[in-house]
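Tip: read the tokens left to right.
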């Protein structure tokens, strides 16, 4: 594995973590949204990740068997959560039904914040691994200078 492969793997992780942070932020922003352009209340979204190859087809032919097992990550899809909506009795709300109930998205702010902290820690870990790769590369260059 060359150092660019390690950086490609780290970059793929950073990209997916950024998408996860955006989705969590969107969930937090819409925790009380009762009306969307599609109709009905906002539905919580989650990110589904998938392992993926990181190399180009030509370099794939030149790899050793051990290097072929290296995988990055990418976003497979942004899925809607299937949790039931929260039903709250608010007869004065403009989106209340005939019985006076309003449907809110089932978004737990504490759960979303815990997910956000997990994504943040993963992002920081990937930055640290990329910094370690860059440091190793610079040290190798210093050795080459003699």
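Filled-in amino acids:
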């Amino acid at each position: 594995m060359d150092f660019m492969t390690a950086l490609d793997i780290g970059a793929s992780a950073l990209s997916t973590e950024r998408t996860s942070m955006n989705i969590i932020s969107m969930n937090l922003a819409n925790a009380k949204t009762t009306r969307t352009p599609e109709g009905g209340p906002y539905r919580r979204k989650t990110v589904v990740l998938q392992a993926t190859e990181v190399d180009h087809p030509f370099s794939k032919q030149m790899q050793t068997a051990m290097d072929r097992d290296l995988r990055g990550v990418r976003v497979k899809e942004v899925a809607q959560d299937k949790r039931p909506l929260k039903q709250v009795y608010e007869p004065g709300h403009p989106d209340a039904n005939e019985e006076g109930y309003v449907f809110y998205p089932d978004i737990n702010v504490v759960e979303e914040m815990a997910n956000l902290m997990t994504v943040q820690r993963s992002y920081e870990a990937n930055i640290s691994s990329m910094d370690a790769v860059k440091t190793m590369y610079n040290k190798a260059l210093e050795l080459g200078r003699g």
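The chain has a mean pLDDT of 89. The helical segments are 3-29, 57-61, 109-145.
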